[in-house]
Structures are given as C-alpha cells and as structure tokens.
Amino acid sequence: xxxxxxxxxxxxxxxxxxxxxxxxxxxxxxxxxxxxxxxxxxxxxxxxxxxxxxxxxxxxxxxxxxxxxxxxxxxxxxxxxx
Length: 82
Prior knowledge:
By secondary structure, the chain is mainly β. The chain has one domain. Helix content is 6%, strand content 29%. It has one helix at 9-13, and strands spanning 2-4, 19-21, 57-66, 69-76. The strands form two sheets. A two-stranded antiparallel ribbon has the order 1-2. The longest helix has 5 residues, at 9-13. It is extended.
C-alpha cells in the first residue's frame, strides 16, 4: 500500500518522488520544549549559489571512513580542495 504526499515546494523542486510505501511513513511528533529546549527542526541551508552552477570534480584525492560514513577529499576543477 502506498501514499502520495503533497510535498513542500522546496522538496518538489529537488524532484523528490511524492509516493511512499506505508511502511516508510511515521506520524509527526513535534518537539517537546521541556525535554529539548530551543531545538529547531532541520531545514536545508541555502548557500545562495545559483541553481544552474555546476561544480565538476577534477580528482578524488583521498578517502577515509568516519564511523559509518565515507569522506572524500575532492579537488574541484576551479582548483580548491574540500
């Protein structure tokens, strides 16, 4: 069984598919300010980069595992490495 959700515009722009299996859906529970004061919900940070700008990888210089996440050191075609 699946549900089709009406996604916020910022998710629709990112081409998130709006249909989800019922096993992937959970009821939203708001923050309890008594237990977790001043905790804000996550929102994606807008870096102000134009949407049509592409950053191309020149080289993957190194990699490492940090707990369960793979981290890459990338040299971009513009010259900087992150």
